[in-house]
Each structure stands twice: as C-alpha cells, then as structure tokens.
Amino acid sequence: MKKLLMGNEAIAYGAVEAGVRVATAYPGTPSSEVFAALAAMAKENGIYAEWSINEKAALEVAAGAAYAGARAMVTMKQVGLNVAADPLMTLAYIGVKGGLVLVVADDPGPHSSQNEQDTRKFAQLAKLPVLDPAAPQEAKDMTVAAFDISEELGLPVILRPTTRTCHVCQDVELGEQKNTPEPPGFAKDSRWVIFPSLAFKRHRWLNKQQEAARNILESLPFNSSEYAEGDVGVVACGVAYNYVKEALGILGVEVSVLKIGTPYPLPEKLALKFLQRHRQVLVVEEQEPVVEDQLINLTWSNGLPLKLSGKRGGYIPREGELDVDKVLSALAKFIGTELPRKQENEVLPPMPLRTPVLCAGCPHRASFYAFKQAAGNDAIFTGDIGCYTLGNMPPLNAMDTCLCMGASITIASGLYRVEPERKIAAFLGDSTFFHTGIAGLVNAVHNKANITVVILDNRSTAMTGHQPHPGLEWTATGEPTNGLDITKIVKACGVEMVRVVDPYDLETAKQAAGEALDFNGPAVVIMRRECAALTRKRQALRQVDLETCVGCGMCIDELGCPAIIKQDGLPVITNTCTGCGVCSQICPTGAIREVR
Amino acid sequence: MNLNIVITGVGGQGNVLASRILAQAAVEAGYKVRTSEAIGMAQREGMVMSHVRMGECLYGAVIPDGKADVLLGFELAETIRGLPKLNKKGVVIANKSCVIPVSAALGISSYQRDKLTRYLQDHVNNLHLFDATALAAQAGTVKATNIVLLGALAALNLLPYTCADLLNVVLESVPSKFKDVNKRAFELGYRAMEV
Ligand SMILES: Cc1ncc(C[n+]2csc(CCOP(=O)(O)OP(=O)(O)O)c2C)c(N)n1
Ligand code: SF4
Q: To pair with B187 at 20 to 30 A between CA atoms, which of A41, A381, A451, B51?
C-alpha cells in the first residue's frame, strides 16, 4: 500500500532511498520537517544527522562529507540560502564528489517568511541545476534523481519545493533503498583549494557543465508535454502544473500543456518543440518569471513567430502564491473563453480579527513587559526573528524593527551611532543568538556600542517547531551533548554587565532591565525560562476573584494573554492558563489568585 | 467519487491531526489523497484552514472557492470564514463554541457570537451546529474537540469509508493512553448527529 506522506517527509524518504550518509539542517518553515523525518530514521539507516548552528555551517558540513565521497543533504528555508550563499557560490566552482543535494524550501504567499525570494533565481546565479516538485510523490522521486545528477555532474543540486509541496500530503509510492558503496574518503588534490587561477579554470568548467546539466534534465520524466489541437499552449511549472490541469478541467477546454519540473537549466529541446507548435503560449509559474525569461530567450534566438505571455502581459501575478482560482481567470482571459459563473458569496458579517499571538504563559510576554516598564516609551526595541517577533502585536507593541535573523543587535548598534543618548534594547532568542547573534555582539563590544542586548532564552528554537540548539544538552538524534553556557559566551565576548533572570519574576526582571539600560557600555540580560509550550509541569493555575476585581482591565490591556478573556466587562481566565502568574503580579488589587 | 473537505479553526485545535486522519482512512480505502495544512506561524492561535481531497483523479491540494463538499468548522467564527470555499449544496458541520481572540478582549475588534450564529443558520441550508467542545469535555478533554467533529462527520455517510474504518484510524493516530477518551469523543460526536 502507498504511504500517506507530507512532501517534506517524502523528501526524507527519497534521501534514505538514495543512500544519504550525512544530513544537516537549520530549521525554517516550510522546510523543517525534512530533516526532522530524516533524523528520526537516522539511526536505523546509518545516517549522521545534525541541526547545525546556521545554514552556512550546515552547507559546509554537508559539503565536507561530499568532498569525502559521501552522499549528503542539507535543508533550509529560502532565506537560509542567503546565509549559506558564500559557500554555495564557490562550491559550484569546486564541485563535489559524493552527491550533494540542497533542499531549499520557498514560501510564496508568504505564509511564514520575511520575503518571497525565488530560489530558482539563486540556482541560476550559482549556475546549479534546480528541481521544482509539483507534489510529494514527485518530490520523493526528484530527491532520488538529484543525488544521481549531482554525482554525474560533480555539482551540488538544488531541490526547491514550495509550501504547497512541503506541507501537502499525498499517497506516496516508495522505492527500494539503494545500496550505495562506502564513501572512498577524501583524496588530497589541488582541486579542493580555490585560488584565483583555479577559479578561472573552474568557472570555464562550470559554464560547460550547464549544457551537460541541460542534457541530463532533458531526459528526465519531470518534464513532459501533452499536445492538443490548436495553436494555444500553456507552460506550467512546479505546483502551478496542478492548478493549470484543474483549471483546464473546470473550463472544459483542451490545450497543449508543457510541464516543467526542472526550471534551470531549461530542457530546451523539449521546450523549443513545444514553442514551434504554437502561436500563443502562456507561462504559468509562481514567484519570478524564471522559466518565462528563458523561453523568451529561446523564442527570440530561434526567431519564432510567437506571442509569449505570463508575468508579462499581466496574466500571472508576480506576488503571492497561485491557486486554481487565479489560474482559472488567467487562462480564461488568455484563451478568450467565459469564466464559469462563480457562486455569489454573501457578504460576511463583521468578523473578529484573529492574528497569531504569543501563547498563554509565554515567557517572552513577561520579558517584554518588564523591559517596557523599565525603559519607557521613548526607548527603541530592535527585534529579531522567532516567536518573540509576535511581541510586536498589541498590546505589547514591543518591537520596533525586524529585518532578518541576527539583525537585532547590529541594527541597534547602527541606531546608536545616530542617537547615542537614546535607550536602545535589542531582543533576540537563544537559537538566533547562536545562529548569527554572537558575531553582532562581538561587533558591538569591540566598537563600544552602548546598547542593551536581551537574550530570550526559552531553551528552544520554538517558532519552527522546538528544535534543539547548541545551548541544550541533546542533539538532533537525541544523543547527550554538552550544552554551551550562553552566560559564559557573553562574558567571553567581553560584555562587562551580564544579568540572568527569570522573566516570570517581574520585579527582578524589571530591576535587571533598568540596570542594564543605565549601564555605560554594552550590557546583556538573559531572560531564562523554558518555552511554555514545552513545560510539562504546570504551575498553579490562576483565577480572578470577582469580589476583589475592580474591572480596571490592566491584566488584559497590558499583557494581551490569550488565556484571559473579557466577560461582561470583567476578566475571566480560561482553561489555556499555564499558571505563569505574571498577571497576578500586575493586578493592582491582588484579585488574581491561585486556583486551589 | 471525489470528495473535498475543508477544515477551519484556530491554531492549536488539532486541525492537522483531523485532516491526516481523514486522509489516512481514504488511503486505506484505496483512494488517491491530497491534504494541505497550515504549519508555521498560524499555529500560534491564528486562523488555520486544512484541505482534504480524496478520489480518483487529483491534482493540487488546495480546494478552489465554491468546491468544498463539506466544511468542518472547529470554531464558530472560523466556520464562517470558510464559507466561500463551500459548494452551495455542501454540508457544514460546525462547533458552536468560540475561541475569543486577544483582539476582542482588547476591544480592537469584536466577537459577536449571536450574530455569527444567526448568520450561519440563515445562510447554510445543510447545517449541523452543536457544541463539540462541550461533548469533548464530557468525553474527558476539550482537546478531543477535533475527534468529536470527526465522529459527527462519520455519522452523515458522506465519506467513502465506514465509520468503523475512520474510528480505527483515529485510535491508531492517538497515543495509547488517550485512546479511550478519543473513542468516547468520537462516539459522542456520532450520536450528536442522530437526533
Ligand atoms: C536565515 C533564517 N533561517 C531560518 C529562519 C527560520 N526561523 C524563524 S524563527 C526561527 C527560530 C528562532 O528561535 P529563537 O531565536 O530561539 O526564538 P523562539 O522562536 O524560540 O522564541 C527560525 C529558525 C529564518 N527566518 N531565517
Ligand atoms: S511556543 Fe513557546 S516561545 Fe513560542 S509563543 Fe508559545 S510559549 Fe512563547
């Protein structure tokens, strides 16, 4: 029987099938479950699996394994590739021996990302083949193929699923696990040492490999064409293929469809044949016009009498993700048929606003509250990426900037240069601290930026699904390891004022915040309290004594905890309470008490 | 046979588990399946929507507007937000209970429970509205609200597999110490449709 698998799990199964030996990753939605699934299968399959501290480290560890001839895989989200861009760009020149597959998940929409960058563009820039799966089954099949292609070309290969493949489940047919030979080990050779002279030679080689890659991709089943009568054709890329097929079914029209599963290098022979048979072609792809641009080149260099549209002509949106409804209107407009009449939807009644929020009892809420109390409204709170980015929401409104992982400290340092008198606090999580925070802290200390750094140490990488990080005592596969002590690291970076406090103890936290903000020189406050979603042992739950409550609303208006709702103007604590006790500490009448 | 089910609710209500269970039962019955789930930021009490499609010929996982045969609503307001996905002849099985967002407590927006309930009653022909959260609590934990709703769905004979098949998958999908609670929850949901 087929197995119900999420796209990300299917990729993990594909990697096991292909005989992967080393798997590395840094978490990031929508990619995280690939590695999580691989790590769970690591022991029985003799795979080494690590959560690395960041994507650059992850790619380099995987590349090292591939230098020694092992099959290796590294996974990350799209913005992770920016962090790993430095090794990637030169690794394309150096090449690999064992197959190296990068799984880089894109997030058009975006659903859970800070931008909508297109990894296929990155692949073009690095001159590396990229595969674009339409569904979990194809993702699994492409993963297996990617290792073979990587070894055949001696190049890393990128697999780029999007959210609608990563987080989609399908009944997937699994294959036999391959018997891959033992890795031969690292052979010393000048090819591994990049120098300008070698770079020139390897660049020529890399350029030559583009044609070799094109030929290999041309022969794969991931690209195919279905011909119909008439001179109208549609090119469908990645997940957009699903939308095109379904939309054509709804419209009840038959046109030729060229499915592209390998957007770079483009299978030109197949594409040229398709273009030659048609007069009007619509290219349907999400994100950037990667395939469209290559097809325009092909049309022009072959002098084809063809009208080619897509992003051009305004048929296909450039932002957000596609779906059947969007593709349906684009196709109807392009083909010139009537859209099936949409059912009239009634106007919805006034709906409550529902945005993601920090969990009930989240320690970050207490940390922000303490700092807001200590710092006043003029202070700037620079932020970073993690659950605590939600501290930006009302009523905390405790985040004034957010750019990318690690930027809290460095943006704060820059603001300080312009407004040295203003109080500035930079907030970042423990996982973010290890990812790219440490370098920013060293920079701030060395250059004497008078800022306060707040490390929200919830003992987890919470936002992306609670992965471990170097501050914890276990690895990705559950092996015990020495957790690094953030306090010691901060001190070793040269910070003279360091405080470690429990944010649930508001008074002490407030005091530490005040001292740090007043300190002359960089200061660090480590807010240490385990993520409430992980804490098994609950503290005593709270309830509001309505006799004592005067209805001032402070608990609600100051904290915005989802466990406290308002009924008839008074606060009521619901069953999601974790007993953190922060609301009890701010209630001016002492009305919030432990449930006995 | 082709069946499209949309599940709406609030992050943390067990939306993902419910769609996986429906899909797994379909795989076991020999159908092709696609699901799409909201995994990420929305899971922190945001709006979540899952899509489950089963049948013979499937492409994408996301159900187009107006093409859902069933809307399974885990929360009152979120059920209404899912209505544009529903086919006019479709069935709605919805929880009367609310999850009041922080924005309502803060007065940034309002949660008008009575108006929302009336809207559902006025605009959906084929509506099964009941307090699934209360039944889950009766079974032993409000966390089993999702399973109560699956039980209710199973009672309506819309699925291409039997109620027993679905219950089996439910029991395989939950940790052994929660099997009894979930079995009770499933049965309470099932019985809620009998009246
Ligand atoms: C370069 C990059 N890699 C990965 C991510 C995905 N990501 C977003 S938040 C986060 C984890 C943050 O963990 P932490 O700083 O400990 O904060 P917490 O969520 O635990 O509060 C990650 C990995 C990203 N946004 N950018
Ligand atoms: S998962 Fe943990 S860190 Fe994230 S919001 Fe919830 S309690 Fe806070």
A: B51
Question: What DSSP string describes A272-311?
Answer: HHHHHT-SEEEEE-SSS-HHHHHHHHHHHHTT---EEEST
Tell me the shortest Cα–Cα distance from B182 to chain A, in angstroms.
19
Range of the domain at B51: 3-192
Smallest CA-to-CA distance from A124 within A239, A7, A288 is with A288
B36 contacts on A by Cβ (under 8 Å)? 164, 167-169
Q: Does B64 touch chain A (CB under 8 A)?
A: yes
| Domains of chain B: total | 1
Ligand 1, residues at Cβ distance < 6 Å = A 26-28, 77, 79-80, 83, 385-388, 405, 429-432, 456, 458, 460-464
Can you give the pLDDT at residue A115? Answer: 98
Instruction: Write out chain A residues lying below 8 Å of B33, CB-based.
Output: 4, 169-171
- Is residue A300 classed exposed, middle or buried when 0-12, 13-18 and 19+ CB atoms within 10 A define those classes? exposed
pLDDT in tens, B128-140: 999 999 999 999 9
pLDDT for res A536:
81
Cβ–Cβ gap B81/A351 under 8 Å: yes
User: CA angle at residue B50 from B70 to A1, to 5 degrees?
Assistant: 90
Residue A589: how many other CB atoms lie within 10 Å:
12
Assess contact for A168 and A6: CB atoms under 8 A. yes
State whether residue A171 is helix, strand or coil.
strand
For B:79-108, CB contacts with A below 8 A are 80-81, 83-84, 87-88, 100-106, 108
**pLDDT at residue A347, rounded to an integer:** 82
Instruction: Kindly state whether A193 is in contact with chain B, defined as any CB-CB distance less than 8 angstroms.
Output: no
Please tell me the distance between residue A378's alpha carbon and the centre of ligand 1 in angstroms.
27
Query: Which residue type occupies B186?
Result: F
On whether any CB of chain A is under 8 Å from the CB of B40, the answer is: yes
Structural domains in chain A plus CATH codes: 2-218 (3.40.50.970), 224-339 (3.40.50.920), 363-528 (3.40.50.970), 541-595 (3.30.70.20)
A132 vs A161: CA distance, rounded Å: 6
Q: A234: Cβ below 6 Å to ligand 2?
A: no
> Mean pLDDT across the stretch B149-156?
98
Nearest to B106 among A168, A239, A556 (CB): A556
pLDDT tens sequence across A276-335: 999 999 999 999 999 999 999 999 999 999 999 999 999 999 999 999 999 999 999 999
CA distance A102 to A492: 34
Structure tokens at A141: 């099949």
CA of A17 to the centre of ligand 1 (A): 30
Per-residue model confidence as pLDDT tens digits over A166-218: 999 999 999 999 888 899 999 999 999 999 999 999 999 999 999 999 999 99
Distances in Å between the Cα of B48 and the Cα atoms of A309, B45, B51, B69 are 34, 8, 10, 18
| Residue B30 belongs to domain with CATH number | 3.40.920.10
- A185 close to B (CB below 8 A): no
